[in-house]
C-alpha cells in the first residue's frame, strides 16, 4: 500500500500533502469525539446482538473506546491530520489499542451514516442545553415583568412616543418572542432525533443489522426511513441554524432596546457595572458592550444559516464531501446563541429601572391623545370626527406649549362640548393604562394575569432537561 490511509487499498501513490491538509476535518470535527464514541459503542453492541461480533469482541471494542474517550478528555490523545477526521482517528487508535478485533467495528457502517449520526447526537445535546437556558431566561423575564407590572413607560411606534404602556407589558413581549423560539427548538429536536446508522454509505448494508436496537441504545425516537436521504441531507442542521437566526434576531432587538434605554438620551435603566466596560480614553464612559455584542453576534448566526443553505443547494444524492463544511457553521451557531442567552440572563437582574425617568418621558408628550379620542367616541362622537377634534387640541397644545393633561375643562370644551370632568381620569396616564384591561392589554392586572398564565405555560413545557 502506497498510503497508510484506512481506505488506501486501491491507491498506488501517497496523498499530496496539500490535499491532505485541504480534505482533513479533524481540526474541527474532533469536537464530536464523545458522540462518535457513543455511536460506535451502540453499533458494536448491535453487531454482537445480531451475532456479527461475539460478545467478547464487542466488549473489547467497547472498553477500548471508553479508554480512548478518557485519553481524549485528559488531553493524552494524539490527533493526526493524516487520519483525516474524528472517525478514522478513533478507529485507528482502537486497533492500536485492542488489536485486530478493532478492525471489525466498521462492519455494516460507513463514515457517511456515522457522521450524520454524530451530528444529530451533538445537536440533540445542544438543543437540550439551549432550551434549558431559554427556560431560565424566560423565568427571569417573568420575575421582572411581575415586579414592573405597574411601571409606566412610553410605548413607541416609529421610535416616537405613541401610548403609555407598562414596562411589565414590554418585558412580556420579549418573553413571548423567546417562548416561540424555545418551542421552535423543541420541535426541531423531534426531527433531529432520528437515527441514520444502518444506511451505511448510501444503499444500506447486506448485514442482518438491527436498527431499532441501535436507535434505542442512542435514545433516538425513530429510524431514518431512507438510506439515501439519511446520509445526504443536512436539513436538521439548517433547521437549527434557521431557528437560531430568528432567536439571534430577537436577542438583537432586546439588546438594542437595552442599549437605547441605557443611553444618556433615555436613562431609563442602569446596567450593573459588572456587565459594562469602560473607555481607554474617556474616563466618564460606561458602555453597554455586552448588549452591543449580543446585537452584533446576530450577524454571525444569520451568516451561518446562509452558509449551510448554500452548502446543500443543488447537491445530488447521496453523500457529497461538501457536507463536511457544515461543522464549523453549526458549532459556531451553537456556541454563539448559547453564550448570548446565558450572558443576557445573567445581565438582566443587574439592571436598575429608573421608574421616575420613564414616567417623566411619558408626561412630556401627548401619549393619551388616543384616549381623548376614545373618550369622545364614548360620548357619541364618530371616531373619525373625534380624531380630528383631538388633532386640533394637540395642535393648540403644541402652539401654546402646554401638555394635554394641563388643559382646563373650559379649554377642552372649546374643542368639543361633549367633554365633561370625567375626562381627566380618562386622559391621565394611569387611566389610559387601566382602560386597556382586555387579555393581551397593558393594564397592570392584565400584565399580572399574563405573567401567571405564562408561568403555567412555561412549567408545562419544560423541554427535555426538565426545569433547570
Ligand atoms: N468527514 C466527513 C464529513 O464530515 C465524513 C466522512 C465521509 N467521507 C467520505 N469520504 N465519504 O462529512
Give your account of this protein's structure.
The protein has 468 residues and is mainly alpha-helical. The protein is built from 19 helices and six strands. The protein starts with 16 loop residues before the first helix and ends in an 8-residue tail after the last helix. The mean pLDDT is 96. Bound molecules: arginine. Residues 25, 29, 85, 111-112, 115, 319, 321, 323-324 line the site of arginine.
Domain module tally: 3
Ligand list: arginine
Distance between the ends: 54 Å
Number of helices: 19
Provide the descriptors you would attach to this structure in a database record.
468 residues; mainly alpha; Fumarase C, Chain B, domain 1; Fumarase C, Chain A, domain 2; Ribonucleotide Reductase Protein R1, domain 1; two-stranded parallel sheet; elongated; binds arginine
Question: Secondary-structure map with pairings?
Answer:
Layout: H1 17-23, H2 26-29, H3 33-49, H4 55-73, H5 86-98, H6 111-147, E1 152-157, E2 160-166, H7 167-192, E3 194-195, H8 211-218, E4 222-223, H9 227-232, H10 235-262, E5 269-270, H11 289-312, H12 327-347, E6 352-353, H13 355-363, H14 369-378, H15 383-400, H16 409-413, H17 423-426, H18 429-435, H19 444-460
Parallel strand pairs: 3-4
Antiparallel strand pairs: 1-2, 5-6
Helix pairs in contact: 3-4, 3-6, 3-8, 4-5, 6-7, 6-12, 6-19, 7-10, 7-19, 10-11, 10-12, 11-12, 14-15
Amino acid at each position: 500500500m502506497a498510503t497508510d490511509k484506512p481506505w488506501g487499498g486501491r491507491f498506488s501513490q501517497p496523498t499530496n500533502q496539500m490535499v491532505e491538509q485541504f480534505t482533513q476535518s479533524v481540526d474541527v470535527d474532533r469536537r464530536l469525539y464523545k458522540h462518535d464514541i457513543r455511536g460506535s459503542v451502540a453499533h458494536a453492541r448491535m453487531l454482537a446482538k445480531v451475532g456479527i461480533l461475539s460478545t467478547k469482541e464487542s466488549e473489547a471494542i467497547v472498553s477500548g473506546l471508553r479508554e480512548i474517550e478518557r485519553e481524549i478528555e485528559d488531553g493524552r490523545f494524539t490527533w493526526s491530520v493524516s487520519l483525516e477526521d474524528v472517525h478514522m482517528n478513533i478507529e485507528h487508535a482502537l486497533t492500536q489499542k485492542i488489536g485486530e478485533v478493532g478492525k471489525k467495528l466498521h462492519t455494516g457502517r460507513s463514515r457517511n451514516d456515522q457522521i450524520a449520526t454524530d451530528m444529530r447526537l451533538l445537536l440533540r445535546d445542544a438543543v437540550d442545553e439551549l432550551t434549558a437556558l431559554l427556560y431560565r431566561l424566560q423565568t427571569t423575564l417573568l420575575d421582572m415583568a411581575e415586579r414592573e407590572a405597574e411601571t409606566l413607560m412610553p410605548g413607541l411606534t416609529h421610535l416616537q412616543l405613541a401610548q403609555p404602556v407598562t414596562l411589565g407589558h414590554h418585558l412580556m413581549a420579549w418573553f413571548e418572542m423567546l417562548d416561540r423560539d424555545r418551542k421552535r427548538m423543541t420541535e426541531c429536536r423531534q426531527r433531529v432525533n432520528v437515527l441514520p446508522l444502518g444506511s451505511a454509505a448510501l444503499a444500506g448494508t447486506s448485514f442482518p443489522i438491527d436498527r431499532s436496537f441501535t436507535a434505542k441504545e442512542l435514545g433516538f425516537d425513530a429510524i431514518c426511513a431512507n438510506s439515501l436521504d439519511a446520509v445526504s441531507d443536512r436539513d436538521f442542521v439548517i433547521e437549527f441554524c434557521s431557528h437560531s437566526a430568528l432567536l439571534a434576531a430577537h436577542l438583537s432587538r432586546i439588546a438594542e432596546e437595552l442599549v437605547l434605554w441605557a443611553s444618556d438620551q433615555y436613562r431609563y435603566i442602569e446596567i450593573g457595572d459588572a456587565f459594562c466596560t469602560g473607555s481607554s480614553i474617556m474616563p466618564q464612559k460606561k458602555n453597554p458592550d455586552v448588549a452591543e455584542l449580543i446585537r452584533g453576534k446576530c450577524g454571525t448566526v444569520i451568516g451561518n444559516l446562509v452558509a449551510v443553505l448554500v452548502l446543500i443547494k443543488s447537491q445530488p444524492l447521496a453523500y457529497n464531501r461538501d457536507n463536511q463544511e457544515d461543522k464549523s457553521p453549526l458549532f459556531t451557531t451553537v456556541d454563539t446563541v448559547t453564550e448570548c442567552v446565558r450572558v443576557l440572563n445573567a445581565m438582566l437582574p443587574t439592571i436598575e429601572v429608573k421608574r421616575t425617568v420613564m414616567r417623566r418621558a411619558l408626561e412630556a408628550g401627548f401619549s393619551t391623545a388616543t384616549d381623548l379620542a376614545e373618550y369622545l367616541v364614548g360620548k357619541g362622537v364618530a371616531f373619525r370626527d373625534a380624531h380630528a377634534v383631538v388633532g386640533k387640541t394637540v395642535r393648540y397644545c403644541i402652539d401654546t406649549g402646554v401638555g394635554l393633561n394641563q388643559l382646563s375643562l373650559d379649554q377642552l370644551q372649546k374643542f368639543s362640548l361633549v367633554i365633561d370632568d370625567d375626562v381627566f381620569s380618562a386622559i391621565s396616564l394611569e387611566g389610559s393604562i387601566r382602560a386597556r384591561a382586555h387579555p393581551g392589554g397593558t393594564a397592570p392586572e392584565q400584565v399580572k394575569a399574563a405573567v401567571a398564565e405564562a408561568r403555567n405555560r412555561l412549567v408545562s413545557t419544560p423541554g427535555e432537561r426538565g426545569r433547570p
